[in-house]
Design goal:
Blueprint: E1 3-8, H1 12-23, E2 28-34, H2 37-47, E3 51-55, H3 63-69, E4 77-82, H4 88-93, E5 98-101, H5 106-121, H6 128-143, E6 150-155, E7 158-163, E8 167-173, E9 176-181, E10 185-188, H7 192-198, E11 204-208, E12 211-214, E13 218-223, E14 229-233, E15 238-241, H8 243-252
Parallel strand pairs: 1-2, 1-3, 3-4, 4-5
Antiparallel strand pairs: 6-7, 8-9, 8-12, 9-10, 11-12, 13-14, 14-15
Helix pairs in contact: 2-3
Amino acid sequence: MKINTLIIDDEALARQRLINLVNDVPELELIGECSTGKEAISAINEYEPDVIFLDIQMKDLNGFDVLQKITVNKKPLVVFVTAYNEYALKAFDFFAFDYLLKPYKDERFFKSIENIINFTNNKNYNPFDEKINDLLKYIKITETSNYSQKLPIKLGNKVYFIDLNDIKYIIASGYYAEIITNDKKHLLRESLSNLIESLDPNKFIRIHRSTIINLKEIGELIHSNYGEIDVKMNDKKLFRVSKSYKKMFLTKMGL
């Protein structure tokens, strides 16, 4: 008996990669894909999948919202797929079967599938120890980060601090960097090359010699027929990913 599988991710390329991987596993039966949280709730309630691969950050609802709103009696095994390790603790609060941190390797995906198949075929099989080890790894990554959570900005004879979580993107402007937050533009006399070295790579990425973006502020990716990629931020601002940063960006996004 095959394991009915549903893929939920608002990024088309991320869904396609999962589709390709799922189709390589004879024991899995792909029953659908969803690009929004609302679609996911409807599909889970209708099809009652055995396993779901669930993105956490989506445009309408996050993955946790989806799990809270489903009404099926038989809950699916949940494999979270995300670029953000800070959700690991909360994911296991929702009884996640596994947590794939983008960019993940194919081998990591197939290891998760192996655990799912073993669990499905043998209810006495318990991958709990492995999951705890993974969780501890994510916690260690988060807690031992040496990156500052504040960015100092000098203004006259004063220095004030910006919370890095408030930064949406940073744009080069001559000898200065324009730091765009939710409510203000800040100027810092610093190069983007120096700035990116001081920013947490799990949260920020450089996509162009003149642009650094906050990963959590990405709304969607737009692909042209010529292989170019534009990043549309949550505030609708568009940025082009340059050729020299394209491979690194796609790898970071797990695509």
